[in-house]
Sequence to fold (352 residues):
Amino acid sequence: MTAKYREIAYKLEVELRRMRSEGRTKLPTETELCSMFTCSRQTVRAALDDLAQRGLIVKRKGSGSYLAGSIADRSSKVVLIIEDEDEYTNPSFISRLRQMLKDRKYELICRSTGGLISGEAEILSELQQEQPAAVIIEPLNNVIPNPNISMICRLHEEGIPVIYFRTSYPGPSEAPLIGEDNKEGPAILVRHLKEHGHINIAGIFRCDDSRGLMRYQGFYEALGDANLPFDEEGVLMITSSDRRRIMQGDEGLLTRFVNDNLRGRSAVICQNDEIAFRLMRVLNNRGIRVPEDVAVVSFDDSYYASSAGITSLGHSNRNMSSIVSDQVTAAIEHKRIPEVRISWRLSVRNSG
Fold:
């Protein structure tokens, strides 16, 4: 096998020069190479190992072998695919991440999907041609089957690192996740409310997003662990469409929640600060005092929370940006990166 694998390595080295001149970056699969050179998989692997040891190729587990440096040579651009870059939690995070990546000689490009699968598909299609250094994706409603997963897998197959942010899509993609522990988060809020004397606690959560469903699960499990009652009548499940209507000023859903779901309950855990802010306005308009009559707590710890005095669970934007920057850089450099959970930080304010 010794002479055979060296002969194949030499022929592949010639082919690598041709690939670089033609703009191709991915080598044929091991099966295809076995067929091309009429040899065993063991011999092909020995030839590829020889090329990798000499720094001519990079082997990516589950993806294949690529020209060394080809990914970095494509572009210095890192693309963040997000629903809305102007959404209230995003500008500060994006600004910090952009600077951190700039310090590492990368340019952050934000692309907004508008919350539409078609918008995401258009962006992913364009990235097939643009070949960025890496792609960060904040998934849309990820409990609904998404036809775009095949395009995400294709980026990965082409050697472009893909990283999921906050949550992930189900499916065959091997993209790592930088996310949150959305079962521990509600437990922190439940313990906080119990310490302040609240026994009957209501909740508002998203039902078309895995983060919302995990927060709901974490909520009722935390109530059980704290020996507090759980009653589904005290829970309102909302969709992304409901959230948009609420933010556009339609407070009918929250009014019905106050009338029907909040009776006999002294506290509410909200999906995010936007919902908490709007709920507090509805409560105030009905003469229900926060926190004297009802405590309101939420997730995100955004400027909504700081300006309205909402007790909220969130993350340090600096820490989050640093983690994402580190993971993106490691992925571009072909280092194996594990799933990361960003730690929570509770900011206690006047709402409960």
